[in-house]
Amino acid sequence: MNHIKWRSLLEILLVSTRLGLTSFGGPIAHIGYFHEEYVRRRKWLDERSYADLVALCQFLPGPASSQVGIGIGVIRGGVLGGIFAFIGFTLPSVIALILFAYMLKDLEFTDAGWIHGLKIVAVVVVAHAIMGMAQKLTPRLTGKSIALFALIAVLLSQTAFTQVGVILLSGLIGYFVFTTKQKETESIQTTVPVSRKLGLYCLILFAGLLMVLPILKGTFPASWISLFDSFYRSGSLVFGGGHVVLPLLEREFVPVGWLDKESFLAGYGATQAVPGPLFTFAAYIGAVIGGWQAGLLAAFAIFLPAFLLVLGALPFWQSMRLNSKIRGALTGVNAAVVGILLAAFYHPIWTSSILTSIDFAFAAVLFSMLAFWKLPSWVIVLVGAIGGWALALF
C-alpha cells in the first residue's frame, strides 16, 4: 500500500476519533456532526450523496449513525477506511464505558451541569444540520409535504415501526411522483471501492451468523457464545437507533441474572454521559459480566451486523441511485428523513435539553458560533460543556 493511501487512512482515523470524542447527543445529533465535518468542512461527500447514504442506513437495521460513519469511511478509503472510521468513532466510548463498569457505575453524574450543556450543544448541531439538509432535500412543495407528513406521523406514534413505515411509504410516493433528469443522475456519481462479490459475501455472512449462532448457543454451553449471540442478534434486528436497543438488552440480560437492574441503569446513565454511539452500552454490559475482554467482545458483536450490512449494501448503492425510478424513491425517502429528524429534534432532543429561557439564550449563542461565525464543532462542544457547568452554579 502506497504512502498516500496510508495517509488517507490515518486522516480518516484521526477525524473519526475526534468525532468519537466530541459527538454527544445520540444518533440524530451524530448525523448532524457528520454533516458538518464530512460534507460542509472536508467535502468528502456532496450533499446529495450524504443524504442518500443517510437514507440507505435508515433502511438497514442497526445503529444508523454508526453505519453512516462506516459508509463514509468505506467511500473514502475502502474496507480499511470503513474499519478505521468505525474504530475512531466507537473506541473512545467503548473504553470510557468499560472504565465506568470497573470504577464509576455507582456514581450520580447524569445531572451534572456539563452534561446539560452538552445536551444544548446537541440541539444546536441538529438544528444546523436540519436547516442545511432541508434546503437541499425539500426544494419543492411535494418534498415539503412529505416531510410534514413524516414529522406528524412520527410525533404522534413514536415507535420504530412507525419510522420504518413512514420511510417505506415516502419511498413509494417518491417512486411514482418524482422524476429525475439525466443530467441530475450524472452529477451524483460516487465511487465505492468495494466489489459486488465482496458485498454479496458480507450479506451471506450476516444472514448465516444470524441463523447459526443460536444453534451454536444451544449446542455448546460456552458463555462467550451466548454473549456473542445475544449482542449480535440485538444489533441485527433493531430499527430506530440506540435508544431502541436498550430495552432489548435489558430483556436479554437482566431477567436471566447476568446483571442486576441497578447495574443496568447505572450503565445506561453512563452511556448518556459519554460521546459516540449508544450501542457501546454493550461494552459496559459485557465488562460487568466478564471484565474488559467480554466488554470488547460485546462491542464487536453488536456492531458486526451493522458493518456487514453497510459493506453488503454499498456496492449496489450507486447503480440504484442512477436508476430514475429508484432516484425518485430516494428523493421521497430523503424528504421523509428531514421530517423524522425534525420530530427527533423536538422530542427527545429539545424537550430534554431546553428547559428554561436561559437554556434557549445559551443555545442561540452556540448556534451563532456554529452557523454564523463558522467555529469548529469541537469548540462548540467545549464551550457548551463549560457553559453548562457555569449555569449550574447559579
How would you characterize the overall build of this protein?
InterPro entries: Chr_Tranpt_l_chain (IPR014047), Chromate_transpt (IPR003370). Its main location: membrane. Belongs to the chromate ion transporter (CHR) (TC 2.A.51) family. The chain crosses the membrane at residues 12-33, 82-102, 114-134, 146-178, 198-219, 231-249, 269-289, 296-317, 329-346, 377-393. The chain has 16 helices and no strands. The mean pLDDT is 84. The protein has one domain (3-193, 308-392). With 394 residues, it is mainly alpha-helical. It has helices at residues 3-22, 27-41, 47-59, 64-104, 113-137, 141-156, 160-177, 182-186, 196-219, 223-236, 242-253, 261-273, 281-322, 324-353, 357-371, 377-392.
Short summary of the structure?
This protein is an all-alpha fold. The protein is 81% helix and 0% strand.
What is the CA-atom radius of gyration, in angstroms?
21 Å
The shape, in one word, is globular
Please give the largest β-sheet.
none
**How many H/I helices?**
16
Number of domains: 1
Strand content: under 5%
Distance between the termini: 56 Å
Helix content bin? over 70%
Helix and strand string, N-terminal first? HHHHHHHHHHHHHHHH
Low-confidence stretches: none
- Give the averaged pLDDT, no decimals: 84
Output the structural class.
mainly alpha
Oligomer: single chain
Transmembrane segments: 12-33, 82-102, 114-134, 146-178, 198-219, 231-249, 269-289, 296-317, 329-346, 377-393
Keywords: Cell membrane, Membrane, Transmembrane, Transmembrane helix
Membrane topology: Multi-pass membrane protein
Subcellular location: Cell membrane
